[in-house]
Amino acid sequence: MVTEDVLTGSLAGLAATGRELVLGLVPRGPRSGILRVSRVQDADFEARLTASYERHYPSFVSYARRHGAASAEDVVQQAFEKVWQRRLRPAEIDNIDAYVQTAVRHETWRELARARTDRERYGGDPADVGDRPDGGAADQVLDRVTLRRFLDRLPRREREAVVLRMVWDLSVREAAESMGVSDGAVKRYCADGLHRLSDWLRTA
Length: 204
Known about the structure:
Elements: H1 4-14, H2 42-66, H3 72-85, H4 96-122, H5 144-153, H6 156-167, H7 172-179, H8 183-202
Helix pairs in contact: 2-3, 2-4, 3-4, 6-7, 6-8, 7-8
């Protein structure tokens, strides 16, 4: 029986894996891992990155701080710098906001990992940093491979809402701003996506 608590806890646990969950990617095709999208020229990329920074910097900092990053502003700055440094590589980005959100999420978890290491080395309780479920208890955490496979099957908008709300732990307002829809639409997409996931997992 897949309860709501187990499903939401397992979705939250995906954030600790450090693997990509970039919005806009599609299920794997026969020839490549992701759908190829138009490449971004340097000037256009800089403009889009700057616009994303101006739009979402406060919510990015809020996300990093909410997950325990002591220097949230530095974490966000590092994320933007790393995205900018990769600008000359082939770009496969159709959603710059989601791409940067993924970078911020990864920097946040790197910061938390460093904090855990310091606590273990110099004393203190590493659990204070906010460890996520590690998937070792099969009755508590769903198989992440299966969960990610079902996430890929969701309609795009439902997948976006579920990932933003349940994996990245954004507020309804933050998710709505990222998706460009109303708060009510985010709630509806997320509820429909979770209901669909529950049905699939129940028969898996």
